[in-house]
Amino acid sequence: MRTKLSTADERRPLVTSAAVAAFARTGYRGTTVADVAREAGISSAYVFKLFPSKEQLFVGALDACFDQVVDALGRGVEATTDHTPEGLLDAMGLAYAELIADRSLLMLQVHAQSAAEVPEIGAALRRGYARVTEFASTRSGATDAAVQRFIAFGQLCHLVVTLDLDDAPEPWARTLALGIRHPVFGAVAPAEITEGGAS
Amino acid sequence: MRTKLSTADERRPLVTSAAVAAFARTGYRGTTVADVAREAGISSAYVFKLFPSKEQLFVGALDACFDQVVDALGRGVEATTDHTPEGLLDAMGLAYAELIADRSLLMLQVHAQSAAEVPEIGAALRRGYARVTEFASTRSGATDAAVQRFIAFGQLCHLVVTLDLDDAPEPWARTLALGIRHPVFGAVAPAEITEGGAS
DNA sequence: CATATGAGTGACTGTACACTCACTCTTCCC
DNA sequence: GGGAAGAGTGAGTGTACAGTCACTCATATG
Questions:
Q1: pLDDT per residue over B94-122, tens digit each?
Q2: Residue B43: which nucleotide is closest by CA–C1'?
Q3: Which single residue of A10, A88, A107, A186 has CA 20 to 30 Å from A165?
Q4: Mean pLDDT per 10-residue interval, chain A, length 199 residues
Q5: Residue-wise over B155-189: b if at least 16 C-beta within 10 A, else e?
Q6: B54 to chain A nearest CA, in Å?
């Protein structure tokens, strides 16, 4: 009994997870479907039975990524007792920081942004950011400007993690990584950055 | 007399510009050196005489990109009369917005971020952001938090332009694109156009 | 048992691409 | 004129990859 068979519908989400991990490492064009297949422990021929094309496989991974992001934001909101708009956004930021501790979900978004010229991928990415932005906005009740800043610091966080700035000693790197920790118990950007630190 | 010869040292920067344009369109892995060669009007064989590898060609393009970004920030600083730290950062933001009106320099940074796993490219990207961050910090005299916010909104701007959000009607897109215009005479952040120029 | 359905794969195909090489043509200097 | 130095290319080579196909094997049911 070498391999236990499962149904295609059971296997598809497993392959999607494998695709998230693989595409997160080397991006849309830098990852072969053989890489995804290896990660999933199946043959690449079977990946093409499960998904019609590499493009659709990537889109599936990206959708799954945003599912998890929105879920995490929701859990963050549930977990806080501070129900002010700023408190709710902070709670979401913290939850996001915990979620992306392993980098995969974050890197997938970065790679997707670079592949957004592919129409289906661009559309999926817009869909994802629409969900996140609308969720942050309606669930926090914050002003548009505050929501915009929330997303802006999310994007900065992507840069910091991509370039491994959070444990770089250079002053400029410390400036960009201020308050951003990707190790699990850290916090993400403080919302009150009005008159912050010293130089 | 079909083609006027020029020296390799004259031609290299021309090819670098072509590389910026080509890589900006389809990214590091999505662009062939034949694409760059076509853009530059030479054969791909000759591109390899001018640059040792595709990777070094991309690094050259990225360095040139950051040269232009830092230059633009400098011109922004020269052009403003408001010498408060916030005024200087605003002026830099405005200059950056004008510089990236044609998207190439911005998209190249986005694509570079996705290719940062390639060691030489990651290093070049860190070099570039180091220059920008240090320049913004020392020339504005602003707090670390303000400089961080400056870069964060720059990253948001990358997202907005990549996803073409600035002329999308959806509310979430309007929220993210608040105050961000990429058409030439638009402004970034809460800054006004001060120079008296005709159309 | 027979036979159907669907899971899963090895071996291919066609193409695209990074990089090389042998070569030609131009310019310049004697 | 001759010939060295360098600009510039056409025609490759080797490899890697998206997608296909014909097939095997497991399970299910009558």
A1: 999 999 999 999 999 999 999 999 999 99
A2: D9
A3: A88
A4: 69 97 98 98 97 98 98 97 97 96 96 98 98 98 98 98 96 95 50 41
A5: bbbbbbbbbebbebeeebbebbbbebebeeeebbb
A6: 15
Q: Give the pLDDT confidence score for residue B6 in this predicted structure.
A: 80
Nucleotides of C under 7 A from a protein CB: 6-11, 16-22, 26-27
In 3D space, the residue among A188, A148, A151 whose CA is nearest the CA of residue A166 turns out to be A188
Predicted confidence (pLDDT) at residue B183 exceeds the cutoff of 90: no
Joined together, the tokens standing for residue B28 give: 């590091």
Identity at B91, one-letter amino acid code: A
- The full DSSP string for B97-133 is HHHGGGSHHHHHHHHHHHTTTSHHHHHHHHHHHHHHH
At B122-132, the pLDDT tens digits run 999 999 999 99
Indicate the domain borders of chain A: 61-177
**DSSP class of B72:** H
| CB-CB neighbours of A134 under 10 Å | 16
| pLDDT, average across residues B36-64 | 98
B122 vs A163: CB contact, 8 Å cut-off?
yes
**Which residues on chain A are in Cβ contact (under 8 Å) with B170?**
130
Q: Do A178 and B148 touch (CB under 8 A)?
A: yes
Is strand C in 7 Å reach of the CB of A43? yes
Q: Would the CB atoms of A117 and B26 count as touching at under 8 Å?
A: yes
- pLDDT at res. B167: 92
DSSP alpha helices (H): ranges in chain B?
A: 8-30, 33-40, 44-50, 54-79, 85-99, 104-114, 119-140, 144-162, 171-177
**Whole-number Å distance between alpha carbons of B161 and A116:** 11
Site from A103, A107, A172, A174 to mutate, B interface, most B CB atoms within 10 angstroms: A172
Q: Is the pLDDT of residue B5 over 80?
A: no
Encoding tokens for residue B26? 């389809």
Residue B109 CA: distances (Å) to CA of A33, A185, B54, B63? 26, 30, 17, 10
| CA of B46: nucleotide with nearest C1' | D8
